[in-house]
Amino acid sequence: MERLLVTGGAGFIGSNFVHHLVDHTDLRVTVLDKLTYAASQESLAGLPEDRVQLVVGDIADADVVDPLVAAHDAVVHYAAESHNDNSLNDPSPFIRTNILGTYTILEAVRKHDKRLHHVSTDEVYGDLELDDPKRFTEDTPYNPSSPYSASKAGSDHLVRAWVRSFGVRATVSNCSNNYGPWQHIEKFIPRQITNVIDGIRPKLYGSGENVRDWIHADDHSSAVLTILEKGRIGETYLIGADGEKNNLEVVRLILTLMGQPEDAFDHVTDRAGHDLRYAIESGKLRQELGWQPQFQDFESGLANTITWYQEHEDWWRPHKDATEAKYAEKGQ
Ligand code: NAD
Ligand code: DAU
């Protein structure tokens, strides 16, 4: 494998993956990205031009996708509409990009017989009770709750069907909640960090008891590269780093790390259909492919992330007012 096409490579996790490839492989990378509101070209700045090229285009446009897929050895597919709250406001771009876009990628890899890795989410499994001893595994039945997670579930099913019916050489991964630099400030952790910087009290949906299983974006990248290199065709791998925390704990930790009283937050209107708990059992990936996460200490990973947002205000500042205005319309 010499040439890799990375869709959504200007987004939060996709750009992290491109940096990971430059640091850990000799691959030449083409990023295909529509540069939606969630993208950031700055996240790719400074990468060697002979290794990384950006093509601006839509994954649902077969005229763009087909020749690009033909010219590469493999595709890693990150591009998606990714935010649950946006999917509740308007599901249509989620259906178009996440389902039609994945279908377009699948038809191109089928036609040109190229290897595909499809990046997905643990949200396809729905949620768990707080006291349930079980965690999600590769055998957990699909049960998505939001338009976002349903569209990702639909994309996973398409990939599985193209593997079985057409012999497409694909793997799938379902990862838990990522944190780290370059995450859009609409998301929970960067929203609260930038709120505290601005003297705004963090906003916790509902009771704040909801649990997410946090993993650093760098660990997600190393897991995807491991699956691309060593994963068995047709298989699904769950990616997680044993990082279960409820939202209350996370907000209190952000406040404490930023020198504020730990109760200086507000409860706001809950998210419709809000999933209660996600938890990943990643034994298959660890035992079969030998992957291990490097960021085991959430508190120090969070502290580094806080420092990154403090030092990159010029990056997020232009989006802050509009992001908060959208939330304010819904009492959030
Ligand atoms: P993001 O919203 O930060 O980035 C998405 C990228 O896709 C953006 O650069 C955007 O411009 C691009 N894009 C959107 N529509 C496109 C289209 N039609 N054509 C081409 N490019 C398009 O998302 P993220 O958080 O980095 O998530 C990336 C992937 O990882 C998604 O597939 C998501 O479902 C999955 N995932 C995310 C998480 C998480 O915690 N954020 C966890 C598990 C899986
Ligand atoms: O589990 C993987 C998923 O994680 C990915 O598939 C999604 O792309 C990614 O956005 C993320 O989804 P969540 O909905 O879990 O992430 P979000 O950052 O939106 O919210 C995390 C938790 O925090 C969730 O329980 C809702 C809550 N929340 C969120 C915001 C924005 C708040 O309490 N307050 C907030 O202001």
UniProtKB/TrEMBL annotation:
One of its GO terms (molecular function) is dTDP-glucose 4,6-dehydratase activity. Transmembrane segments: none annotated. Keywords: Lyase, NAD. InterPro entries: dTDP_Gluc_deHydtase, NAD(P)-bd_dom, NAD(P)-bd_dom_sf. Coiled coil: none annotated. SUPFAM superfamilies: NAD(P)-binding Rossmann-fold domains. Its EC number is 4.2.1.46. It catalyses: dTDP-alpha-D-glucose = dTDP-4-dehydro-6-deoxy-alpha-D-glucose + H2O. Pfam families: GDP_Man_Dehyd. It comes from the Bacteria. The keyword Aminoacyl-tRNA synthetase does not apply. Residues 5-302 form the NAD(P)-binding domain. Belongs to the NAD(P)-dependent epimerase/dehydratase family. dTDP-glucose dehydratase subfamily. PANTHER family: DTDP-D-GLUCOSE 4,6-DEHYDRATASE-RELATED. This is dTDP-glucose 4,6-dehydratase. It comes from Nocardioides astragali. The lineage of its organism: Bacteria, Bacillati, Actinomycetota, Actinomycetes, Propionibacteriales. The gene is rfbB.
